[in-house]
Design brief:
about 300 residues, alpha/beta, Rossmann fold, Methionyl-tRNA Fmet Formyltransferase, Chain A, domain 2, 2 domains, seven-stranded mixed sheet, six-stranded antiparallel sheet, 13 strands, elongated
Length: about 300
């Protein structure tokens, strides 16, 4: 079976390596163009190290790019962490079709920030889906799914790196084995249960300190490590990470710094305190909350606000 891997970053590289360990015949890898200063994508590095052809199109709408792809005569295309829109003709050109990894239990949380939104919305469970893409945004029949619990202190980072990344690699390998054995299913997604959320970026990461404590905590966890939920202080965005929620009452206005200790910066929220173990602003990298307060002069009584 001639396989083309389309992807990027550590996930794409690990998927390629895991498939090769299982004896897969990978004929090409598609990655984004090189980054600033010629920085190579990990998938490109992994493919080149094994003598696999690498293609780096700037646009998949280009007819020449598609013609080059057809010459590869792929039996299966594997989309392993893809942020580009791949036109349907690429998916259809492979003899068996294409499969795609998505870190949610589809059809819930379609879109580029599925893990973030599962945490932000307070879901108790999430998981991953391997599906047959059809050109839509995370649409197409489901091949397999795996689920995990979301712990009360999980972040987007902990869910991805500790669970959904390694599980995703295993699921891709399992899916290829099912396809080779002729046992891969195609279960239609239930469109009545579909949700789609926008990218989790600064447009949604601002902390409204008047909201319930749990909602604020979920937002901070869901934006950790990227983009970092933030409040404003002295006109600058202060991003918070490594948060804990304490059920300790305070009479201070929400967003007010009520304590600074080795655990981090304690901020008043409704019916509790939010402790930020780390913080970052335009003036600092991500450092401990204690260091941030010392370096930036943040003190008890100061207040982070929703707007500048």
């Amino acid at each position: 079976m001639r396989i083309v891997v389309v992807g990027q970053a550590a996930f794409g590289a690990k998927a390629l390596e895991a498939l090769l360990e299982q004896g897969a015949n990978i004929v090409a890898a598609y990655t984004p163009p090189d980054g600033p200063k010629g920085r190579l994508d990990p998938l490109k590095e992994a493919a080149q190290a094994r003598g696999i052809k690498v293609f780096q199109p700037t646009s998949y709408k280009d007819d020449q790019v598609f013609d080059e792809y057809k010459v590869l005569a792929p039996d299966l295309a594997i989309l392993a962490f893809v942020t580009d829109i791949i036109p349907a003709r690429f998916l259809e050109a492979a003899a068996t079709g294409a499969i795609c990894y998505h870190p949610s239990i589809l059809p819930r949380h379609r879109g580029a920030s599925a893990i973030n939104w599962a945490v932000i919305m307070g879901d108790n469970r999430t998981g991953l889906t391997i599906f047959w893409p059809d050109g839509g945004i995370d649409t197409g029949p489901i091949l397999l799914q795996k689920e995990i619990d979301i712990g009360p202190d999980d972040t987007t980072g902990s869910l991805y790196f500790n669970h959904l990344f390694p599980m995703g690699i295993e699921a891709i390998v399992e899916s290829v084995a099912l396809i080779k054995a002729g046992k891969a299913g195609r279960l239609a997604q239930d469109e009545s249960k579909a949700t789609y959320e926008p990218p989790c970026d600064d447009r949604v990461a601002a902390i409204d300190w008047e909201k319930p404590a749990q909602e604020i905590y979920n937002l901070v966890r869901g934006c950790d490590p990227q983009p970092g939920a933030y409040g404003y202080w002295k006109g600058d965005k202060v991003r918070l990470y490594g948060a804990k929620l304490l059920q300790e009452q305070t009479d201070q206005a929400p967003g007010t710094v009520v304590g600074i200790d080795q655990q981090g910066i304690q901020l008043a929220v409704s019916a509790g305190k939010l402790v930020a173990g780390k913080a970052r602003s335009s003036k600092t990298g991500k450092i401990s909350g204690t260091e941030f307060a010392e370096q930036q002069g943040l003190k008890v009584g100061d207040r982070l606000t929703f707007k500048p």
